Amino acid sequence: MIDFRNGRNVVAFGPSRVCKLRALNFIAGLFVCLGAMLAAPVAAQQSVGRVIGTVVEEESGQPLIGATVMIVGTQLGARADLDGKFTIRNVPPGTYTLRVSAIGYAPVEITEVIVEASGEKKLDVSMTIEAVQGETITVTASAIRNSEAAQLKDRQEAADVRDAISSETMERQGAGDAAEAASKAVGVSVVEGKEVVVRGLGDRYGNVTLNSALLPTPDPEKQAVPLDLIPAGMLDNVVITKTFTPDKPGNFAGGSVDLQTKDFPDKRSLSVSVGSGYNDRTTGTEGFFTFERGISTSPPIWNEPFAREFGTQTPGFTTDSAVAQQVSNVSTAFPDHFRRNSKDGRLPGSFSASYGDNLLIADRRLGFNVAYRTSRSASFYDDGQINSWLARSQADSMEARAQYNDTRAVDENFYSFLGNAAVEVTPNNRFTFSYVWNKSEEWEGRRVYGVAPGPVFDDLSRTDGFLDNNVLAYTERSLQAIQFGGKHVLHEKSRFRVDWRYSRSKAEQDEPDHQFFSFEQYFPSDEDPEPTPFGITTANTAPPERFFRFTEEENREFGADVAMNVSRRILLKTGYLEVRKDRDVEQDSYVYSTNSLGAFAQTGQFEDFFAPIGAITQSGNFLFINRRLSRVTTPRDEYTGTQDVTAGYAMGDIRVTDWLRLVGGARYEETEMTAENGFEPDSNGYLGGSFVSYDWLPAIAITVSPSTTVNIRAAYAQTLARPTIREFAPFGSEEFGNSERLFIGNPDLKRTLIRNHDVRLEWFPRPGEVLAVSAFHKRLEDPIVLTIRGAAAEQRFPLNVDEGSVFGAEFEIRKRLDQVSNTLRNFEFGANLTLTTSEIDLDPGRATDLGVESSDRPMFGQSDYIVNVSLGFNPPTTGTSLNLSYNVFGERLDAVGTGVSPDIYEQPRNLLDFNASQRLPGGLKFKFAISNMLDERNEFAQEWRGVDYIDRLYGSGRSFSVGLGWSL
Known about the structure:
Elements (H helix, E strand, L loop, with lengths): L1 E5 L2 E5 L1 H30 L4 E9 L10 E4 L5 E3 L5 E7 L2 E8 L6 E8 L4 E8 L9 E4 L6 H11 L4 E5 H7 L4 H5 L5 E4 L3 E4 L7 E5 L2 E2 L20 E7 L13 E7 L7 E11 L8 E3 L14 H6 L6 E2 L2 H11 L9 E3 L5 E13 L2 E27 L8 E28 L2 E23 L13 E27 L4 E27 L22 E23 L2 E23 L7 H4 L2 H5 L5 E4 L2 E4 L3 E3 L7 E17 L4 E18 L10 E20 L2 E12 L3 H4 L3 E4 L2 E7 L7 E12 L6 E12 L2 E6 L4 E7 L2 E14 L10 E15 L2 H7 L5 E2 L7 E9 L6 E10 L2 E4 L8 E3 L4 E10 L3 E8 L6 E7 L2 E8 L4 E9 L1
Parallel strand pairs: 3-9, 8-10, 14-17, 38-42
Antiparallel strand pairs: 1-2, 3-6, 4-5, 4-7, 7-8, 11-16, 12-13, 14-15, 16-17, 18-22, 18-54, 19-21, 20-31, 22-23, 23-24, 23-53, 24-25, 25-26, 26-27, 27-28, 28-29, 29-32, 29-33, 30-31, 33-34, 34-35, 35-36, 36-39, 37-38, 39-40, 40-43, 41-42, 43-44, 44-45, 44-46, 46-47, 47-50, 48-49, 49-52, 50-51, ...
């Protein structure tokens, strides 16, 4: 074992963790060595340049596979690959003319192509499908402007309604992870910094894919994939598809988010960057508390027959000394880790490195890219609030049930690795491989304390009760995916193409030895000047608890698509998809009895409570075991579940005329779900369920293009939303440290059918610019909602209700300002606005039964409005980039009130970020950023009689970061 010490914080890592750290150090060193090894080859290439680009069909935007690109007057040339891309290597410096030809298309000559020593010229070439014999189209060379313009071009030519955030935009706006990147897109908001809500529809109504393969989630409660696990630096683009076409999985309504990892580079590349920063709430703050991490699993003695036998019936006393000693041994097997250690908030830091190349080996092209990133961060606040309010129908104001101060400190380490490779066995056959691994480690210390008057305590006449809740928790999340694929063109003229992929991905969340400790005390008063002893009572506080939970979800997916151009205007596609999802949740919970509080009753120190654990005292013939430990886990605390989806589709993409395009077809999906808890099938209390559905999902989309820069789109599709395995599993789980919040699964849930209607008008006046207006309507049949059951306890329970609807509109503009004034020629402006309203309709009588205030309410996570604004300054010659971005969202439903109590809404928060970068000599780049400049706090509130009552309130502080990078 090795101890890493930070002040009084001690974290013990076993051999496996040491091996991982050594491996990470090896990877960092490897990148440094690569830089030295590449210096000589790079110097040898300084005298020549290259020409790269893409050849596409002008009308359809599809790649022209096999098109020939030659430099006139030389023997240098290349052939376009499966994606229409070409690379001409070893071009001496000079000015050239390129000739592009393909059978059946008018040749294109591009003049004034300037190639510099060690430089790279990028070109996009469009070819007309109706060639006039002998006619050659001549154009002047122009470089591809940037990846943002390329994304808008892809969006313009797509068959569906989509939005995308390019890596260029991510870098300019300082997005650190995929969640931050997605939040810049129109119609997208991010909940809790990681869960994406598209068009007001949350995790159940969307999906997240990595390079088109569905991703699992490590979250034990939700379907949402935590996008904060994916660093923005590993992504080329984040594409949000908002309308369904049959070649996509049908389980979404709001949007499908595809995370596209870094593509294979066109040339050798090597980059390294380091960064650090400062947060005005966290960095160097005194009182930031941490703790010694607990054990990884429960002690082996708890698996012994004796421990299993007494389970939750641990005896408090006995006349048998052997039994007393056994109970004492079991209860003292857990080490005492519960203590807070104060320190100063640590300085954040990051390191990243990437290397890629594109090689010719025996006339076969090999491309690969590897990237590694690690970072550490911290967050802290000590002025948070958590309150509980009681509403009475005749009262003008709400009564305070509890008013707490909230202090929370979090340390987080993050690691990620990406590897991509592709090889072209022949010009028409390519095989690909990718591997992604991400991991986060989070240490959380939290204290919620304050006055808890009236109903919280046994003595209802007292209003001076003090309750102190403490949580120490370590959480480890990981996500990894392996993908294989192939692209094969069997007939170039018809572009008969077969694409296939196989992926296996796994998400895990490990929560070992979470520790909870809650106690109470009454304040001194005039009538009773002496404070009462510190106490732990089951009536007022939960007993001290140690909690273990492990969640694992694994996806295995195979898909194949076949496409063929029947003619130049008709594309037919068909395909097959099979996805297997396995989910396993295990948890174990132990509580301490409080027969005798000993010294703790006078001091209130955790150490005094744990010190005499297992002490055996004797009175007469009885042996008493103090501070004994009981296992409160039951078979129902674990569950397993599976989901099998088999799908097939057929669709056509028909360009009826130069201005009219039709895309339509249908998808068939067969779903089978099973879930069961830990009880044996034949034992009392067994719960389990199965679910089967067979669904046809039709879709049709019409695109009218009155000009080459304008699209008018209309689409209709039927999609579905399945219950999550967690919602479907007959499993009751408590919120850790709060036995009153119980989530109970429902094996009788049905899937939701959604009818989607979309229209969009979009205008692309120039490359990199867009103006768009969209409207959408969704009708949900049998939507699943989270309701509240139980009078004494808050039991959250999912069930189907009759119907729901979502209406919305989106407005977007991205524009360079040179047309406004020449002095603004280097400025770029972007803004988008989303207006959404949603409603879940309940029968009034059913609403009363469910304990909700109204028979209609909005959907969880839906904001009435979302606004994004950005202003960038990017002069092309100086290497300077400045960007100011602003975001605000309308209030969104967080929790449903019970009885007459109003619902709880997350309140609007204004976010303002600034990012700057500057290229320096020698391939260096300096970066500077300020995040959350306005430092508005996160607020959740209930409105009663026109007054807002705060439910939760906390802040995150302003963050300042600097970075220095070097690239080859």
